[in-house]
Amino acid sequence: MDISALTDVMLPRLLAASVQGSLLVALVWALCRALPRLPADARCWLWWLVALQLVLGLVWSSPVALPLLPAVEQMIGVPADAVTAPIPESALSVAPAALGAAPGGTAAASAGAWMFALGVVWLLGLAAMITRSLRGLQRSRRLVAEAAPCRDRSLLQALALAAEAYGLRAVPAVRVSDAIVSPQLIGPWRPVLLLPEGYAQALRADELDMALTHELVHLQRRDLWLGLLPALAQHLFWFHPLAHLATREYGLAREGACDAAVLAGQAHGAREYAQLLLRLGIAPRPDAGLASASPDYTFLKRRLTMLQTTRPSSRALAVSTVLLVAAVGVLPYRVTNAAPMPLPPPPPAAPSATAPPAPETPPAPPMPVSPTTPPAPATPAAPAAPPAPPAPPAPDDSDARGHVHTIRTQVRDRATGPIRGTFTLSRTPGAESYVLLDSAHSVAMSSTEELREARAAQQGEGPMLWLRRGDDRYIVRDAETVARFRAAFDDVRSLGERQGALGERQGTLGAEQGTLGARQGEIGGRIAELALEATRSGDAASQRRALDALQAEARTLGVQMSRLASQQGVLAGEQGELARQQADAQARAARQARAIVDEVIASGRAQRL
After folding, report:
1. What confidence score (pLDDT) does residue 116 get?
2. Do 491 and 589 meet the contact criterion of CB atoms below 8 Å apart?
3. Which end of the chain is more exposed for a tag (fewer CB within 10 A), N or C?
4. Which of these three, 337, 371, 395, is where a domain ends?
């Protein structure tokens, strides 16, 4: 396809998507202003939908028709039958000769030249944006390559446990660089967490925990992948200021959502977290990743302001708002003329009293009917989108102490070997904490800092129970006590294994859904190509057979997607039930552990540190 054909196709779509995108930006901005307590996560999805609309408007070949304009006969002021009346042959005979001398031919040529020039400008701007992004990607890769691997075993162990707590299958690689001033998460394919030199020593334990949690929440939300769509929209619509505004607002809402997630799982309030953001300060954002610091002072000020929203609106209102915008604003629309209204037949003329009746005219002989071109086959509709899988159940935030995650994990430590067990990580310090270190199965009900403290106090490979009650620390090495303490968490461990198995099944179903969705996209594109070929060809029998086969396959894929979505819903319900049982088992284990601790401290079998 040459540049002229490309501009003829893309420029109208760019214009239509820009107009609709402007309206959608205005709608989302008005909703955010009208609902000041809308959660940052909902705002993030709203601005992401703006980017989705811009990209769909550019690639969608069949927009939804909106007959909002008046009918043609109303616009030109003539009856509908006059609009469709045949043109006399005398007019047709002089038309070719008049076309060459008509001034409209020069105007059409001038308009074509302007369209070509605009298309070239758009392509040059797109090439400049892509070049800048590629250079930024090279800088990020060079920064990662020059960074040194992190050697802090305590930090790596804490990061691994926290990653398991947030449901991450893999822990990001951690490297240390002296070329950055704030933590950065780079690369959606193989994410790397870059930390500044001496970062772990410069921050307190709680500040380090909050900073690392912020980056892990980005990974949990898949922000590195989701952020590719707004970046694509910003590249394609580089000329549109509202596209840049939507991308910036999406980035701000994304950081606000991660900030809210960190505060939801921390014992410290917004004040301590705001102090951490001020310490991180201002730093440029990597082109291929995310940074904890803010890119400018305005961004930092708005993040600090969002921390003051202590009572966000209900989840039902947030979900309803996002679904409403997705339903009415994402699909590309095209404004068309309304269908012409049929005119009533004229009333019969009254016979004249004085004029003689006209002689009856004999009927004209029938004219031979000329063969007509067979009608082109109608463009088949694109296959319906598969139903979205049901959303997972909302987390239970009734626990006043914050988020408590019970996980089964295996952490590899080069010095002491793997650590396997069940860990309940609470970021809210309680009155007491327990850490059982055992090569068979370790158990912890503590913070990550206390887990590191217990690891430091362990000597040898024998089992050890580390306790904290108030400000006092104890160690118990009695084999019977260790066995009883471990047995108290048998139900928690069993339920964790079942949850892990369900998670693997959900991941497998999600992969199948992704494969089917990709195939549906291929079918939709092929259907559009065959429909276009069929409209241009006089003999469309072969195209029709191919279209029928593709449509049948699309229907089969739709049924399979519906079945997978139903299975995902069943698994989500089972996960919710296991989560409820896990909470009950955790409460029972905590009561038994407290009784065991009371006994060993009272009997003197606990050695005070």
Report:
1. 86
2. yes
3. N
4. 337
Give the mean model confidence (pLDDT) for residues 444-454. 79
Rounded distance between C-alpha atoms, residue 139 and residue 287, angstroms: 8
Residue pointed to by tokens 């933590």: 183
CB 197 within 8 A of CB 16: no
Element (H, E) at 404: strand 404-413
Q: Are residues 249 and 130 in the same domain?
A: yes
Strand extents, DSSP E, 299-360? 333-337
CB atoms within 10 A of CB 396: 11
Residues 449 and 548 in one domain: no
Q: 73 with 221, same domain?
A: yes
The Cα–Cα gap between 580 and 574 comes to 10
Shared domain for 321 and 415, answered yes or no, is no
Please check whether residues 221 and 296 belong to one and the same domain: yes
Q: Give the residue with greater pLDDT, 322 vs 431.
A: 322
Neighbour count for residue 290 (Cβ, 10 Å): 22
| Whole-number pLDDT of residue 536 | 62
Q: Whole-angstrom Cα distance, residue 361 to residue 233?
A: 69
The span from the first CA to the last CA of the chain, in angstroms, equals 77
Cα separation, 343 vs 363, whole angstroms: 27
Q: What is the pLDDT of residue 108?
A: 57
More confident residue, 69 or 563: 563
Q: Are residues 280 and 293 in contact, defined by beta-carbon separation less than 8 angstroms?
A: yes
Q: Residue 292 in contact with residue 215, Cβ under 8 Å?
A: yes
Query: In this structure, are residues 543 and 537 in contact, taking their beta carbons and an 8 Å threshold?
Result: yes
Same domain, 533 and 562: yes
**Which pTM does this prediction carry?**
0.54
What local confidence, expressed as pLDDT, does residue 338 receive?
67
Of the pLDDT bands very low, low, confident and very high (cuts 50, 70, 90), residue 107 is: low
Residues 132 and 249 in one domain: yes
Q: Are residues 512 and 577 in the same domain?
A: yes
Contact 244, 234 (CB under 8 A): yes
Expressed as residue numbers, the domain containing 505 is: 492-595
Which tokens go with 380? Answer: 């088949």
Q: Give the tens place of pLDDT for each residue, 567-593.
A: 888 888 888 888 888 788 888 888 888
Residue 56 one-letter amino acid: L
Check: CB of residue 417 under 8 Å from CB of residue 458. Answer: no
